[in-house]
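Module 6 notes. Inverse folding takes a fixed backbone as the condition and produces residue identities as the prediction. Think of it as a translation problem where the source language is geometry and the target language is the twenty amino acids. Below is one complete input and output pair. Work through it position by position during the lab.
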């Protein structure tokens, strides 16, 4: 992994953990309204999404006849003005959530990703293969990696908004 990608993954995760690190059980599980996720649900969504992204990267990597795809403008992922409906597979459970439980899940999904990634001898294969993303279509696997931290950045901003509402 390039240093900048690894730095982005670490920095974004550190920001997330700092943002949720001192919130109470009540704030973690409180929803501003019935149509909005709680902070705990946002964190569970991040865990689910990282798990699904890792599965997609592994699937794309293991495809024998994997095709190359052109890079897409994935930076829009971090833009909270662009509303995106989460696919059913990454819609979080209602909870309630414990902060330690959330941290353990986030750590688990990151470790599974890193275990796979660190076993890759040739990281350039991630630019040569792709798999289909529900929003972007066929996406190079290296951009799936970038989406992990870009998506997390999006939801850090959401958590900040939720904290200000609660």
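Target side of the pair, the amino acids:
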């Amino acid at each position: 992994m390039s240093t900048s990608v690894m730095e982005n993954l670490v920095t974004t995760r550190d920001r997330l953990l700092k943002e949720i690190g001192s919130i109470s059980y009540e704030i973690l599980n409180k929803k501003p309204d019935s149509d909005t996720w709680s902070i705990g649900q946002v964190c569970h969504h991040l865990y689910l999404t990282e798990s699904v992204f890792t599965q997609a990267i592994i699937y794309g990597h293991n495809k024998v006849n994997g095709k190359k795809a052109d890079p897409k403008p994935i930076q829009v992922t971090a833009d909270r003005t662009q509303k995106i409906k989460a696919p059913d597979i990454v819609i979080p459970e209602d909870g309630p959530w414990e902060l330690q439980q959330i941290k353990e899940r986030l750590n688990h999904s990151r470790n599974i990703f890193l275990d796979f990634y660190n076993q890759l001898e040739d990281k350039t294969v991630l630019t040569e293969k792709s798999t289909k993303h529900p929003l972007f279509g066929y996406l190079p696997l290296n951009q799936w990696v970038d989406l992990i931290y870009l998506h997390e950045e999006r939801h850090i901003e959401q958590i900040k908004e939720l904290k200000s509402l609660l």
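Reference fact for the lab report: The radius of gyration is 16 Å.
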